[in-house]
Amino acid sequence: MPRTALLASVAVLAALLTPTVSQAADDPAPVPVDRFEGEVPFASQPAEGIFTWGGDSDDPPALRLTDRPDAPEGAKVLTGTYDISGYGGFTHDFAATEPGHDWSAHKGIRFWWDGQDNGKKIAFEIKDGGANGEASELWTTSFTDDFTGWKQIEIPFTDFQYRTDYQPVGGIDHVLGLTSMWGYALTLPVGVDGRFAMDDVELYGKADQSLRASVTADSAVHLVREGGTATVRLTVATTGSAPLAEPVTVTYETAATGTAEPGKDYTPVSGTLTFPAGTASGATRTVKVATLRDKSAETAETIPLKLTVTGAKAPAENPQVVIDAHGLPYLDAKLPVKRRVADLLSRMSPAEKAGQMTQAERGAVGEGADVTGYDLGSLLSGGGSTPTPNTPGAWAKMIDSFQLRAQATRLQIPLVYGVDAVHGHNNLAGATIMPHNIGIGATRDPQLAERTGAVTASEVRATGVPWDFAPCLCVSRDERWGRAYESFGEDPALVESMETIIQGLQGRSDGRDLSRADKVLATAKHFVGDGGTEYGSSTTGTYTIDQGVTKVTRQQLDAVHLAPYRTAVDRGVGTVMPSYSSLDILGDGQGPVKMHARADMINGVLKGRMGFDGFVISDWNAIDQLPGDYPAHVRTAVNAGVDMMMVPYSYKDFTATLLDEVRAGRVSGKRIDDAVSRILTQKFRLGLFEHPYADTANASRIGSAAHRAVARQAAAESQVLLKNAHGVLPLRKNQKVYVAGSNADDLGNQTGGWTITWQGASGTHTQGTTILDAMRKDGDVTYSKDASAPTSGYDVGVVVVGETPYAEGVGDVGNGHDLQLSAADKAAVDKVCAAMRCAVLIVSGRPQLIGDRLGGIDALVASWLPGTEGDGVADVLYGKRPFTGRLPVTWPRSEAQLPINVGDASYDPQFPYGWGLTTLTKVPQGGAGTLRALAAAAAVAERAGADQAGRALVAKARLIVQQKAGQNITPAVAKPFADADHLSLTGRYGAAVQRLETAWKAVD
What pTM value is reported for the model? Predict the structure, then answer.
């Protein structure tokens, strides 16, 4: 039956069965969307159907059609149960193979809901325009379940707002057209073990012009200097840009409810503007508000402009004019930062101070009114939280709009906006994506690390973001950790050497460069010991190691996990983020304590002993993991030394609770002033008071050839050649090369987690070059992903295998992940390497267990997660650059060995820490005598402070040992070899060569 006929017949039936409701005489008959009698199946695109979704595997609700004698319509209703930790709900999409539905004749949509009186808001979303229900524009509103039993919920289409936190297609025209509708969706409450019942979704009422016409103000906030005149532009727009069918009037008046005084601070205005019938869509009228000048220094003052609209939808909020603060010491850029901070702090109310200590997610504040209402000090974009479209210009426009809201506050304290740009501006499509930190650690190139930081800072700041939640200074001690790739390596000395990235991000250590348009505030994370968590100790869901417990002696803590933070503080890092994990210092009697509660470490060690003068930002909702009730969470973290709380969606509760705790005396005013002073200091250093808005001068450099060249070099230097029998690498241009494997032609796998979205994704989601595409530029290449194409007639095979993207504890081994290659990858390796000489590249965030196939592989490369520039990988494969990378972590033989690290008493790896063969470089000749001579020369260089010469001497000795050892890496060889790399990083070059001599002697 054609859908139109089906709807018509259902409408007749519904008219007979539906309970009588009030209906105007000229209203069209209700049109059913869902009766839940079985006419719509449980199915998904492209077919019509109802389907569920959620953030975690257990978050989608369980749905069924249930016979209910109390059903408002028909015999059945839709019922469901849910217990959602992240997000979840259900959708009804219309068939993508048929035209979208026209809802424009109706006033709104309504349905029956069986109330549970849980007080929770339920989001209701409709899908407008686009290709289908999953590629449409989303418009949302909500209703509150604060009743019991069946109630008909009526939602006029005028109540729906354009969804700002997520749009599947980046937005189409930002107009609710209603002529091509694709269904609806409900997002169910979080934190409730709940059930629901729903029935009879239908369209009701008659549309009026306010559905097709709207009046908007050019901005919610209009800044003006004292004595100036503000111009508010009001625009009428219609669906489809049709001329107005009826007149629209806007009555306006300046309201005396603001903080500015009529007649003293401004001249009151009132009147009526008319858009006559026939007015073109896009027509504009203006209202001018003149302010008056006096001679006193003042904070900002507000003048609300009240609008009453007839014949169209009114703006979501009334605009307001803000007279800028002026004449106050904290606004004087010539004064020292310390004095400016003291002056500003003295003027702040408790609520304003609490706001500065609060960071919310951009998706939680909508258009940003709460930035003003709660005096928020900071916003962030979590992983994948992006504007639509996801372009540099849209980022700058979005952040500027939030900064404008901050300018509507009394003191006009700018926001500091933060993102997780952990390997480039990884939330931004088209940005330059660097290798993840584990690859940067493999380069052993501090100058290059600094350059990658500089590129990242330039691209981040050009989009209006002045704060980066990077670098991660974790010392990763167990490859089962899902965050292992966020670490520069397992040796604190290696991590310290790579902290030049802080200067790349921030500039000089005294903070003088922070106000530059190409620098950002950096964050050392996660303080402290997150890389040392014990397998099986995680306290979070199905995670196995992430957010677990680090058990160490105080000596081990200082030597391994705290060491990088001493360096970071010396380098002037502006912020520090505590870890989700717990710290158990053996012998201190406290047992495991969450890091956000460890005042001894944050106040005592970081701020006290180390002298850190920046501010401490919590991790995402981390205080919720502390023991006790919510007030205990707040006071514990604040008193422990956390200065700003990342409370993405609970910022209202946090600010109210913090103020309660201060009033009750459980958090001191002195502690609050310390936290706020630290935050304000960094805002002044960033130059945000003088330049709160995005400086997009460097936007043209985002993803530029120059920036990608840095990423390409980093990708090349990160490649670690573990084995190279028969000189298979480098490849020659005249060779016929057979390429296979799951990661040869997958940009998403190559970039890994924290790319565009939090978890990352396979496939193409940004701009870049895959390894395969890069190889095709250099040689004669044939590609067969699964190696199903014939393998005869080739000179060499290259099989690119490894992991698919993940982030954090989601990637923990034992949480759906392991260190084995997939069955398909193993099959590809086996087939290609049996047919020809082969090189295997492992694209992964950590070592993979390859020992059972190592004998059949001629060349093995640890490619890590090289980022968007696959050309860098091809550069070393084809000999444009030599292989120079060295293992930043120990490569294990088996999972049973884990954790295994340099310095262990028992050490029998597949490849030791620091291992890395080279190409294009002649290996020095010689034996024990040569090594003794190199050791003596290295000792001389060490005493002279000649680091470059000392490292070069160690490198020669390392190449001699690797040449002799080949693949005969016994424990007697591996341990002194790894020790030597650590010694070299700490400047003990003579001792390093002596250990290499020990390794040389141990080779059979």
Answer: 0.87
